[in-house]
Amino acid sequence: MLTSTCKGCGRKIVFAIDENAKVQILDMVAPVYLLSEEEMGVFTCERVNKHYVSHFATCPKANEFHKKN
Questions:
Q1: Residue 51 belongs to what domain range?
Q2: Is the pLDDT of residue 69 over 70?
């Protein structure tokens, strides 16, 4: 697993290859929750381990890294 530090915000990130052979940059410790609806519109959630979030969704400086067309 190739890990690094984001040059924008300094958080730990990991590089992974998706099913389309593209590199994805993921948060190392971003929490992921599974949301379930219970009775009468009340929701519950549980922490899901071994799931990662795209770092572009959480990085406060993500716009600085978008490719310009």
A1: 2-65
A2: no
